[in-house]
Design brief:
Helix 1 packs antiparallel against helix 6, helix 4 crosses helix 6 and helix 5 packs antiparallel against helix 6. The N terminus is likely disordered. By secondary structure, this protein is mostly helical.
């Protein structure tokens, strides 16, 4: 059966399921590539200053990249801070989870609850209530990334399929 989809009509039925599958695969693949990029100094330890410079510049708009806040493995640091790494790994894990299992769309209150530990960690470490902890920053980022992925997926699917997925407010 040949399927024709035009701009004027929303994607429905089998085409919608295929589109949803394709969106999930693309989002997970892009996140995997993004993570490989900021792990580049750890995975590929040859010292190519020009390549390192350009790859680091890719991540600079989304992360402050302070060396003392980046996770180091074998004396090589990630190109993003521990919190950003946690967020990206959380998104990847959630993407794989959503891909493999049918999970319900989370309520908006869970997103708000997930951002609170991240927010308080930033505030408390910034004003000196406690010292910055890479483990805590990565953990709060991981929680937030895991919870935020279904919302990103929903908005992406809605954009491409012209349908609104029911939200549990």
């Amino acid at each position: 059966m040949l399927l024709t989809i035009t701009k004027n009509f929303p994607i429905t039925g089998i085409a919608s399921n295929y589109t949803s599958f394709l969106i999930k695969v693309i989002m997970i693949s892009l996140m995997f590539i993004w993570i490989l990029g900021f792990l580049q100094p750890i995975l590929f330890t040859q010292n190519d200053s020009l390549t390192n410079y350009f790859i680091k510049r890719i991540y600079s708009p989304v992360c402050h990249q302070e060396r003392n806040k980046c996770i180091n493995i074998a004396n090589h640091g990630m190109l993003v801070c521990a919190r950003c790494a946690g967020i990206y790994f959380g998104v990847l894990v959630a993407g794989i989870t959503v891909f493999l299992f049918q999970i319900p769309y989370p309520k908006l209150k869970y997103l708000l609850i997930a951002v609170l530990p991240l927010f308080f960690d930033v505030i408390f470490s910034s004003i000196g209530i406690y010292s910055y902890s890479k483990i805590l920053a990565c953990g709060t980022g991981l929680i937030f990334g895991y919870i935020v992925f279904p919302f990103l997926l929903n908005e992406t699917e809605s954009f491409f399929t012209h349908k609104s997925i029911k939200r549990n407010e």
